[in-house]
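Hi there,

I know you've been waiting on this one. I reran it after we fixed the sequence typo, so this is the corrected version. Both the input and the resulting structure follow.
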Amino acid sequence: MSDVTRAKHGRPVHHWRRDLVELAALFTAVAVADGVANLIGHGPGGPTLLAISAALLVATAGFHTWWARRHGHAPPTGDTGARPPSEGRTGAGSEEGAAEPLKVAEATALLRMRTTVKDAPGSLAALCTALAQRQVDILSLQTHPLAEGTVDEFLLRAPAELPTSEISRSVAQAGGTATWIERADAHDLVDAPTRVLGLATRTALDASELPLALRQLLGRCTIRSLPATSPVSGRATEGAPVEGALEDTVMRLRAPEGGVITVERPYLPFTPTEFARARALVELDARLGPRIPRGQDMLTLPEGNAITVRRADVSDLEAAKAMHERCSPRTLSLRYHGPVGDADRYLNHLLSPSFGRTLAVRTASGRIVGLGHLLWDGDETEVALLVEDEWQRRGIGIELLGRLVAMAAEAGCASVYAVTQASNTGMVAAMRGLGLPLDYQIEEGTLVITARLDTPPVTTSATTPVTSSLPYALGHARQGAGKWTVPGTGTDRD
């Protein structure tokens, strides 16, 4: 700052003490210069002394230049004046005065981490410092308050070579407990409010999206839906409270149609925040009521018959029952693996969008001649088909199968499975026709074919003749601990 700091009566005020000191310093410098000149000019060793002084001056200047280039200079601490940008120094700080910047890792990985910290000032700061020391970048943070402590959920970008065990160890040293880490992808970069609104939109457009939306909202979890009344025994299912129930790693919600939706995540307890989000999503589905996207595709069979393929729901119940009446007992028994008289009981469950998606094939007169079901079975997804006897071996079954597998891939399912008899070579041929990796399991005459959705499914057009004998009636009965799982229903038989 200049010596002229103030003005008095419009005139600058000077500091006379500083002027006096500068004048004394000037006279002192002149006296010293005169003494040095007399010593060099009249002394016996004047030239030698002059040469030595010049050499020392050059050595001092060279040392100063070397030191400045190697260590740099810190900005003056007492300088408070404005300085143009071109005069600012951008070099690294000195070794003693400033820490070197951390090197950013070239290869990184996205991670989701959840840990519990004490609800105390500074706990989150200690956690962030521990992550920064490992060169881990925090992309987003969500907090889930608990009665004691807080669950913090992070989206991290960490060096690819850094093991997750090292991150967990650093978090534990910073005070984090019950730490859980898994890989993330680019979809997790969307912030929580945007993701929830997107899931709500999907659910509002299609009721069958509710289980998938819950799974994406809560991460890796198992979702099971039970109807209000068992389609086998006719007995009422034990319901859930209107407000739902949360028990550590299990939450039970009242389904829109009156049944129960059970969500289980054994490796990580649910937080009250997650429970509130899931309950709000289910309540939205209940208020909107049954709904499916309306639209249909017109197809022509090889012999020239025109059919339509569209989504079906409980409004198609009577037409589906009429198709049952036109099917032979053998066709119904192959599909449902049980008494033919019980076939109609499953339809209300199978056509409900809450348990999956159903495609219906209709003729030009409006009759339903084929049904294809894509059923959410916990962590797995089942495909099942039923085609009226007179319309079999015309390509309808493989058309439905290809469309169902494509829908499963679009919904993010990792695989689909179909269960039939071990001697059914037609089903094997149909599954192989999808062009997907297949796994086979045979047990007591039952064949389970699982298609892994690693590659896009190949949908065969209905206009392509089917030479193999395709079994259009699929189903299975899997025995559990004292209970039977009814094919394609997700319910239990005592």
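Quick highlight: Residues 1-10, 73-99, 456-494 have pLDDT under 50 and may be disordered.

Best,
R. S.
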